[in-house]
Amino acid sequence: MSSAAAVAPDATLPVAPGVATGPRLSAGLRCALPVILFLLAGFVAPLVTVAAYAFATPKSFDVFRSFTLANFAAIVDPANTVWTSFAWSLVLASVTVVLLAIVAYPIAYGLDRVFGRWSGLVGTLFVFPLFVSENVRLYGWVLFFLKNGVLDGFLKWIGLSGGPEVLFTPGMTLFGMVYVYLPFMLFPITLGLAMVPRDLIDAARDLGADRLSIWRDIELPLAMPGILIGMLLTFVLAAGAVAEAKILGGQSIIPITQDIEIAFTYAQNWPLGSALAVILMVIVSGLALAVMGRLDLDRILGRR
Amino acid sequence: MEQSSRRANLFVGLWTGFVLVAIYLPIVCGALAGLAKGRYFNFPVRAWSGEWWSRTAASLEIHALVQNSVVIAAVVTVVAVVIAFFGALAFARFDWKGRRIYQKILLLPIFFPQPVLGLALLLWFNALGVTPSWQTAIVAHLVWIVPIVTLVIAIRVYGFDPVLEEAASDLGADRLFILRTVTLPILWPGIWSGALFAFLLSWGNFPLSLYTAGADSTIPKWLYSKMVAGYTPMVPALGTMSTLAAAVLLLGGGLVMHWRRRRAAAAA
Lengths: 304, 268
What we know:
The complex is a heterodimer. By secondary structure, chain A is mostly helical. The longest helix of chain A has about 35 residues. By secondary structure, chain B is mainly alpha-helical. In chain B, about 80% of the residues lie in helices and about 0% in strands. Chain B starts with a helix and ends with a helix. The chains are: A mainly alpha, B mainly alpha. Chains A and B meet through α2, α4, α5, α6 and α7 of A and α1, α3, α4, α5 and α6 of B.
C-alpha cells in the first residue's frame, strides 16, 4: 500500500504542518483561494466594469474617464418606454415563480416520498434537459405549435379544424419560461422536503392531525428554505430571460435583457446598456442577498 | 385514510408522468423535423429521410463547431473540477472565519441572469483589450460552472468524516498521500458527477457563448443563428445529435459510477 515516494516527507509542500511562512492562512481560506481569486477576476471585475460604463458619457466608450448620470436620466425620462420592458420581465418572472411552485411541488413530493428506488431515475430525467441548450428545446415547441406542426397537423389528421394559434404571444413566452426553469424550482424544493423529519409527520398524524394541517403547519414551514431558494432562483433567471421571448414569443414583448442587448449591439450605446444592466443587477442581487441572508446553507445541503 | 393517501400518490405519479411527457415533447418534435424529408416541416410526416442527418454529419462548418464545443467543454471540465474540489473543501469541510459569507458569494454567479453575465464579461474583455474567441468563452463558462461544480462536490463533502484524514495523519501519512488514498476515493462520486455536470452544462450553454465566443461558434450558438435567419432541417438534425451525444455521455457517466460503486461494495 505504501510506496517509498508516497511516505517521503513533504518538505517541498508549502502546506506542510509546522512550516510557517509569513502570515498563516487557515486551511479553509487556502482551499477557497482559487475560487475566490477566479470569481474576483471573472465575476466581480466584469460587474464593476459594467457599473463604470453606466456612468460614462452616452454613446461613447470613455469608461473610467467620464462621470455622468445622463444614462440613468435617459432611462427615467417619461419619453422613454424602457420601463415597459422592466415591467414585462418582472411580471412574467413573478407569474413564472407562482406557476412553477404549483407545478413542481407535487413532483418534488413524489421524488422525496413516493417514488422510492425510482426517484434517482425520475430525478435524472428532470436534470437531463438542463444539458440540452434552451434554444433547441424552445424551438421544439415552435415545431409543436407551428401551423402544420405537430399539434395542428395531428388535430387536422383526426378530423378537427386544427390547433390554436398560440405561437408568438406573451402567453407563449410565459409558457417557455415555466418550461425552461422547471428544474431550478424542482430540485431546491426536493432538498427542502428532504429536510422535513418523517417522524414529525407520523407523530402529528398519530395525534390526529389531518392532511391539510400537517401540510400547513409542519411540511410547508420546514421545507420553506428549499422553496425559497427555488423561488429566488427561478425569479432571478426568469427576470433575465431573453431566449423565450425571442424564439417562442416572436418578440411580441421585449424583455429587459433584450433592451440591454440591443443597446450593446445595434445601438452601440454601451453606457445606456450598462445603466439598464446595473438596474437589473441591483434588483436581482438585492433580492438574492436578502433571501440568502436568512438561509443556513449547511443545513439545506446536508450537514447535520 | 389509507385510501386517500394512495389516491394522493396516484395523483403525484400521474402529474409527474404528464410533466415528463411535456418536457420531452419538444425534443421529440425536433427529432421528427430532422428526419422528415423536405425543407419545410409538416405533420404528420409523409416521407422520412436521413438526408439532413448525413448532410449535417458531412458539413465542414459543423465539424468546426463540434470541435469548438468539445474543446471548450473539455477544458472547462478539467479546470472547473480542480478549482471546485478545493472550493468544496472550503465550503463544507473546514470551519473557518469567512465561510458563511464565502458560501453565499459563491452562489451569486448561479443566481445571475446569464445573458447579462455574458455581456458584462464582453465589456470586461474589451476593457482588457482581449479579443473574444473560444478561449474567452472558456472563462465565461467557468464563471458559471465553477460554483455549480463546487456545490455538487460540497454535497458529497458534507457526508465525509474528517476523522478519517486525521487518523491517516496520526499514522504518519503526509498530506499528498492522504489526499490520494483517503480524501479523493471518498469524494470520488462527487467529483465524477461534478465533472459530468461541468462538461454537459458547457456543452449545452448558449447565452454565455453567444456574447463571449466572438467570431468562433459553438453548437448552440450556430443553432440559434440559423433559427433566427436561414432555417434548414439541419437545425433540428444537429440539435437532436447534440442531445443524443449528451444523453450517451450522461448514461456512460452513470454506468461508470454504478460500476465503481458495485466494485467498491464488493471489495469492502
